[in-house]
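Late entry, evening session. Most of the bench is empty. Finally got around to the prediction I had been postponing all week. Sequence below, unchanged from the version circulated by S.P.
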Amino acid sequence: MKIIGLIGGMSWESSAEYYRIINQETNRRLGGVHSAQCLMFSFDFDEIKRLQHDGEWEKLAELMKEAALRLERGGADFIVVCTNTMHRLADDITSAVSIPLLHIADPTAERIKASGFERVGLLGTAFTMEQDFYKGRLQQRHGLDVIVPDEDDRRVVHEIIYKELVLGQVRPESRQAYREIIARLIERGAQCIILGCTEIMLLVKDEDSAVPLFDTTTIHAVAAVDEALRSANTP
């Protein structure tokens, strides 16, 4: 079994879900009392949130590289970043270590394509919805047609993430707001919806959407187990 290196704390609410899913999935596959071999470096999210909103991405890159190096020195065989937004710094992370990074967008896109969908609606932080590091990877590497909410809806999605979900707050009125935003994406042709922030799965469930939801937290965590249990001789 390979050792999974997790960069978490962005927020710890979703990182806890990663830990739970990874261990449950490992046990489901191996049985007995098996669990995953993993290391986690967990940030103080207050600092990360401040730097994100101040646009201090170079400082964030240095923090992410140091976290990855700590995990590599600790014996991790590959890196999993437990957040969509911080994949903006994926190239910085991979340049700092000799072990691979399992990018969150790739298993998500493969699952979507295997389901036969091409036009996807993307929910996430404003950084994920508006910048190209995530949408561009889905479009250019995987050939998906990505649509995002309009400006007002993007603001609502972002604020609920940072003011509620990262604190573990799940409010019925926020779930309803997300339902309405999802419905508007469907009206614009979305065949499915990517929950492109790892905290959204705390709020939105399958019954909240008329089209399939692709929860990046679960997909990424299961992909980490796939990699951890893959033979070193398997391409």
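Two things to note before I forget:
The two ends are 16 Å apart (CA to CA).
The chain has two domains: 4-103+219-229, 105-216.
Will write this up properly tomorrow.
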